[in-house]
Structure formats: structure tokens, C-alpha cells
Amino acid sequence: MLDRMITHSAFLELVDELAGKRRIIGPVARGERFFYEEVERAGALDLAFNYCVYGPRAFLFPPTETLFTFQQIEGRFAAEAVVEDRPTALVGVHPCDINAIRLLDRVFEKDHPDEHYLSRRRNTLIIGLDCPRPCTDGIFCSDMKTNEATEGFDVMLFPLGAVQEVGASGKGGGGDPQAGPSVRADEPPAAPSQYGVVFGTPTGREWLLYSHKSTVPTAADERALEQYHRSKAAAFRRAIKTPSEDLPALLDRSYDSLLWEATARRCYSCGSCNLSCPTCYCFNIYDELDMTLAAGERKREWDGCQLPKFAEVAGPHNFRAKAASRLRHRIYRKAKWVREQTDLPGCVGCARCDRACTAKISSVEIYNQLAEEA
Amino acid sequence: MAMTTQATPPTAGGSLYIPTPARIRAIEDLTEFERLFELEFLDGHPLGHDPGQFVQVSVLGIGECPISICSSPTRQETFELCIRRVGNVTNHLHTLEPGAIVGIRGPLGHGFDVSEMHGKDVLIVAGGLGLAPVRSLIQYILDERSRFGRFDLLYGAREPKEILFKDDLTEWRESADVDFHVTVDRPDEQWRGKSGVVTTLFKGLPKLDPAETMVVIVGPPIMFKFVVLEVLARRIPQHSIYCSLERRMKCGIGKCGHCQANNVYVCMDGPVFKYGRLKAMREALE
Questions:
Q1: Burial code of A97-135, b = ≥16 C-beta within 10 A, e = fewer?
Q2: Smallest CA–CA separation between B57 and chain A, in Å?
Q3: pLDDT for the residue A316
Q4: Rounded distance, CA B267 to CA A111, Å?
Q5: Pairing of the two strands B272-274 and B121-127
Q6: Which of A46, A295, A315, A330 is most buried by its number of CB atoms within 10 A?
Q7: Running DSSP on this structure, what letter comes out for residue A330?
Q8: A198-219: pLDDT as tens digits
Q9: Taking 50 as the threshold, does the pLDDT of residue B263 lie above it?
Q10: Contact (CB, 8 A) for A120 and A109
Q11: CA–CA separation, B33 vs B29, rounded Å?
């Protein structure tokens, strides 16, 4: 069920108004690729983007951040927390990345709530943009059931409006005018003329309704949404032979598989998979002193379980000294352990890890090879 | 005292990561590499820990590291940490004098479930630096002696010069409250005691009652494997065997991922685990 309809141009006007109150983060074209960046005006956004190279994780959980500042005064210390609360809007977040943010929310809320993350998150409005068809090859979001988002957004946009036909799109049945924007790498993608809107939170509803720029959905709009969902269901194909709910059991049978060692022979332990992953949240904590040596900051920075020293202890002893055990650790986290700890998917199938991998290690290939063995 | 419940760390100024200032009251050299630090919070509040829990110790400007608490909550308002100098933070701690202020976060993690040991015989086997985390439990049992049955304590060190807590050892040897034995792997000319690995001390043990004995094993992984074999051979069930794990911990509150062993965050579910659980954690003792 749709809550409202809004045209593309009216939506951009709304975002421009929002820019007076919040920092706007959204997809921006850089050459042929797209990145989440801060923009001054909605016109700088490219909402017909296929996918962003990185997810929006960095705007909620920055690569480095100060946890607190401290000062040594006569042998004692004074510390002051650094908690950011800058109002922000993430505009044009695909379902995979919304599901990734839901996981980060759960992790940072769980047991010991982490104010550094949660304060940023509370002050962030999330405007989702649904995907009518796969954004690129190699993704497995439909396997992870994360190509749709049921919560985790304030407003979700469904690109329903008839799009200008961009020639005969090679894949994905581009003949269907209701199916949303056709995206081709060799031509600038077209933005849809209008969106069906679903509210996720009262904040989202309030924001969209206050300016009277949206309209009440008609019966035809609802039919268009149904057609959109049918077309979408047909467009996404499964890539992993094992259903995601059975992956934990598959991994249980695969702990001693030779495949870890065989695949990890190619691994450079560079951590690119961790860096590009929207659900990775491991971090390191370290201190920085200023020039006086009496004051400084305690900071945290992203860390990665694939880096060789991640599980090293004093001694020294390394509990995962081999690349094979680190690769196995990452795959187990993504498909089993994080799910067991949070009841949410630990992997959203965006395949950023696979695309980022210098050695072309593929998660899909690993799951499918394990399924053949088991 | 609420056992096995995890104290929520104080949230200073909205951040879980800000440590609470504590003063070093006393420092004692234990060996060439280990020192015992007695600490008290500046505001005087007790640490309020369970035996087996740990704290994060900060030297601001240098960093933070996890250290197990080696004194019992029954004993004093202060608390003690046995610190081996091995990294940046611990090396810096060894340069400090009494009166210096350090930062503490904790107590963190889950310690020993002492209520489960009440009324039971207890056998503690410690190897090397593993004596530090179990010392909190040893002191607790000695202070609450009537609540426990027979108490045996076995300790193995590599060399005489590596033996920790020598004053305690003298006290335990003379005490009627504990049957204590120590051995070293490599004796020197002055050593008058037993020699050999810690499992050799099992020969002197009385027969253990499998239904009435709780066993605690803390030491390096290689020692753990041999000791657990001795204990299992005496028909002690897996749920009656405890172990404490060492891991690198950055946050200490189940987020940063560094201490993860298979599906377990050691800082949250541990560092103390039952053997039955450890078996399913293949990385725990590798």
C-alpha cells in the first residue's frame, strides 16, 4: 500500500528545502561510478544511479572518529566525550544498504549502547529508494532477502513513473514502462518521473506531508505498484544454491573443508572486502597526543578481520595466523554468526566484497562450492 | 554479591569509552617482568567485581589494554592487577610510581560462577601467568572458606624465577585451608621443590568425587589440553570444568570484534567459560 505519490521534480524541491535543516548525503556520479557524498543541492544527486561503490556506513560510523578528548592536569586527567548530533539526511539508499544500517543499529544498541553511533543515527533521516531490478551483475541480495526493506527507513520511494525509454535495454526486459528506470553503463541513466511513497516512521511522514507537494495515490498507482513488484520479482534471480536460512547449517558442515585453504591461497589479506562491506563494524582504538604531550584524543578507526594481525595477542600469539582461518572467519560472520547474535542478516548480498577483491574471491562461489562438497 | 551478572560500565559524559580515574596505591615487583599494582578509584567506590572478571587499563596518550583482576572482592576496597610488561601500555605502566593516576573501565565480562561452587570440592590448576586471574578466586574461597568443601591448588611455572605471588605461596603452603602444590618445568640449583610439568602434581591428589568437584584450569593453551585430559580421566563432567581465555580486546563491550573466538565475544560471554562450551569453540584453544 502506498502512502503518497510524488513527482521527481517535487521530490528534489523537498530535498532542497531539507538542505536548510540537514546535511544532505546522496549518490553523486564520479565518472562512470557513483559515491555517497555530501551535496549542497538536490540537483547534484543522481537518483537513477545503479549502485554506490561504498555503502553509506561512513556517515554513521566514520572510518576514524574521536571518542573523547583528554587533558592531563597535575597528574590527573579530565576527559570529555565527543558525540556528534549533526542533523543529516541519507537520500537514495537502496534496500541492501538500509538492511545493513539496521544491522549496525542492532549491534551498536545491543548490550552496551554506543552513543557515538546512536547519536548520529538518531539525527539521521533515511530516504530509501527501491530497486526495480538488479543494479549490476554478481549481486546476491535476493538470496539474502535484502533486496527489499521492510523497516529501517523514514521514507521509501518506489520508482513507478513511466521512464523515458533509453533504447532497447539489453537485459532485464526493458520493454516494460512500469518497471522503473533502465540503467545502462554507456548512457546516462534516466530518473523516473514519479515515485510511490511508503512511510517508515512518523518523522518521515511529517517531513513528506508538510509541504503539500505530494498527492494521494490513485487506484491506478496501486496497480502500478503491484505491477512493479511482479516485474521486480521476475528481474531478481537467485545466485546461491543454498537458501540463506540454511547457510548456517551448510557452514556447520564445512568448518574443516579444504576450500578455505584453497581459496585463501589467492587472498592478499588486504582487507578490501572489509573496507567495502556495509555491515563490517569491527574497529581498533588508539590514542593521539597533541604537541604539548599533555592533551590528546582517544580515537577509533575501522579495522578488518582479514588483516593479518587482527587476532594477535601479547606474547605474541595469533589466533588466526593463516589467511584460510581469517577467510573462514569472515564468511562465518557474514552468513552465520552475526545472524545468530542479532537475528538479522550479517550480509546484504551487495557483492561489494567480491567486486573489491584483488584476487577475485567470490562469496557466491564459496557458498556454492561448499554446497557441492557437503 | 550478584554473581555472573555483568555490571554495566558507568557512562561518563555519554561515552562508554571514558575510563574512571584510579590511583596506584602500591607497586610490588613479582618477577623481572611482572608487577603487582594495587589501585583505588579517586571517588572511593569499590570495583564491585566477580572473581575472574577483567578491566581495561588506560594510560592516556599511550592506550588501553585488558587486564584480569587478581584480587578478591571480599578482601579490600582496593583492587589488584598483575601486569606483565609486554606491550606499549604495560611497558608504560611499569614506569609509573605509587600515586600515579591511570584510567579504568570495568569490571567487564563474566567471571567464575562461585555460587555454583558453594558446597563443592574445588580443584584449581594454574600455569604461568594464569595464576593471576585465578588468584581472585583463590582469595575468595579462602575468605569464604566454610562455603566450600575440600580445596586443592596446583601451580606450575616454567622456571623458579617466573614464580608469581611468592608471599601468597608461602601462606598457602602453611595454610590448613588449602592443599597447595607447586612445580617448575626447569629447576635451578637453588630450587628445593618439585619439578616437572603441572600434570605431574596430579599423582599427589586425593581421589576426586566427580559429582562433587568443580575444577578450574587457567594457563596457556598447551597446558590446558594436558590438564583437561587428566581431569576428564578422573571422570569430572565437562560442565564442572572452568577455563579462562586470553584475547586481544579493544572495546571490552562486545563490539570491536578483536576478541571473537568463533561465534563468541570473549569479552562479553567470557573470559571464563565452561569446558563443555569451549569444545564447540574450535578457535578457543588453538
A1: bbbbbbbbbebbeeebebbbbbbbbebbbbbbbbbbbbb
A2: 13
A3: 76
A4: 12
A5: unpaired
A6: A330
A7: H
A8: 999 999 999 999 888 899 999 9
A9: yes
A10: no
A11: 8
Q: Does A314 touch chain B (CB under 8 A)?
A: yes
Place of cell 535484502: A146
Question: Which of A302, A273, A269 has its CA nearest to residue A285?
Answer: A302
Number of Cβ within 10 Å of residue A42's Cβ equals 20
Residue B2 pLDDT more than 80? no
Interior/surface letters B206-222, b for 16+ CB within 10 angstroms, e for the rest: eebeeeebbbbbbbbee
**Helix A95-109 and helix A115-122, axial crossing angle in degrees, nearest 10:** 140
Calpha distance B9→B2 (Å, rounded) = 15
In order of their start, the domains of chain B are 20-108 (2.40.30.10), 114-244 (3.40.50.80)
Q: Do B86 and A315 touch (CB under 8 A)?
A: yes
- Let me know: does B51 contact B114? Beta carbons within 8 Å: yes
Please, are residues A91 and A153 in contact by the beta-carbon 8 Å criterion? no
As a whole number of angstroms, the longest Cα–Cα distance in chain B is: 57
Q: Where are the domains of chain A?
A: 4-235, 244-284+302-373
CB A278 within 8 A of CB A97: yes
From the list A77, A282, A285, which residue is nearest B64 (CB)?
A285
- Residue B29's SS3 state is strand
Mean model confidence pLDDT for chain A? 91
Please judge whether A285 and B63 are an interchain contact, meaning their C-beta atoms are less than 8 angstroms apart: yes
Least confident of A170-174, B102-106, B235-239, B273-277: A170-174
Taking contacts as CB-CB distances below 8 angstroms, the residues of chain B near A341 are 263
Residue B280's contacts (CB-CB under 8 Å, 6 or more residues apart) are: B262
Distance CA A323, CA A316 (A): 17
CB contact under 8 A, B283 and A319: yes
Sequence letter at residue B21: P
Q: Count of alpha carbons within 13 Å of A222, Cβ hemisphere only?
A: 7
Residue of A nearest to B251 (CA): A285
Residues 67-126 of B with CB under 8 A from A: 84, 86-87, 90, 99-101, 103
Residue B5, C-alpha cell as written in the block: 551478572
Whether pLDDT at B12 is above 90: no
C-alpha–C-alpha distance, residues A362 and A263, integer Å: 9
Instruction: Read off the amino acid at residue B36.
Output: L
**For residue B64, what is the nearest residue in chain A, using CA coordinates?**
A286
Q: Closest chain B residue to A310 measured between Cα atoms?
A: B258
> Nearest Cβ partner of B250 from A72, A285, A340?
A285
Tens digits of residue pLDDT in A221-243: 999 999 999 999 999 999 999 99
- φ and ψ at B276, to 5 degrees? -55, -35
Q: Does B44 touch chain A (CB under 8 A)?
A: no
pLDDT digits (tens, 9 = 90+) for B224-233: 989 999 999 9
pLDDT (0 to 100) of residue A186: 44
> Residue B64: which H helix or E strand, with range?
strand B63-68
What is the Cα Rg of chain B in Å?
Answer: 18
Distance CA A24, CA A15 (A): 8
First to last CA, chain A: 42
